[in-house]
UniProtKB/TrEMBL annotation:
Protein name: DUF485 domain-containing protein
Source species taxonomy: Bacteria, Bacillati, Actinomycetota, Actinomycetes, Streptosporangiales
Residue ranges crossing the lipid bilayer per the database entry: 29-52, 64-85
Keywords assigned by UniProt, alphabetized: Membrane, Transmembrane, Transmembrane helix
UniProt cross-references to InterPro entries, sorted A to Z: DUF485
UniProt xrefs under PANTHER family: INTEGRAL MEMBRANE PROTEIN-RELATED, MEMBRANE PROTEIN
Coiled-coil ranges per UniProt: none
Length: 110
């Protein structure tokens, strides 16, 4: 078996293992719901902007209307999602990914 084939079999072995499946599940369990929630929030903003112009044009104070507040909240929610994902990755994904990487490195070094 060549070195390249040996390395490929190590990656296949890791990918088939329970810890990799757990890592993938933790990732998907966070990313998919967060993505759906953000897309719903974004589509709501677009739909309201197109079909509820009266509501979106409602002045809240001064020249600040609902549409402007919702638009700013789009940016705020983007940063909050990035921050929350960073915390999730640091706590739940990175430790397991580091274990798997170390295992691969040990097997490929041998």
């Amino acid at each position: 078996m060549t070195t390249r084939q040996h390395d490929a079999s190590i990656y296949e072995e890791i990918q088939a293992g329970e810890r990799f499946k757990e890592l993938r599940g933790r990732f998907r369990g966070w990313v998919f719901p967060a993505t759906v929630a953000f897309l719903v929030w974004y589509v709501l903003y677009v739909v309201l902007s197109g079909f509820a112009r009266g509501f979106m044009g409602t002045k809240l104070f001064g020249n600040i209307n609902v549409a402007l507040v919702f638009g700013i909240l789009q940016f705020v929610s983007t940063f909050l999602i990035a921050w929350a994902y960073s915390r999730h990755a640091a706590a739940k994904l990175d430790p397991l990914a580091d274990e798997l990487r170390n295992e691969v490195e040990e097997k490929t070094a041998a």
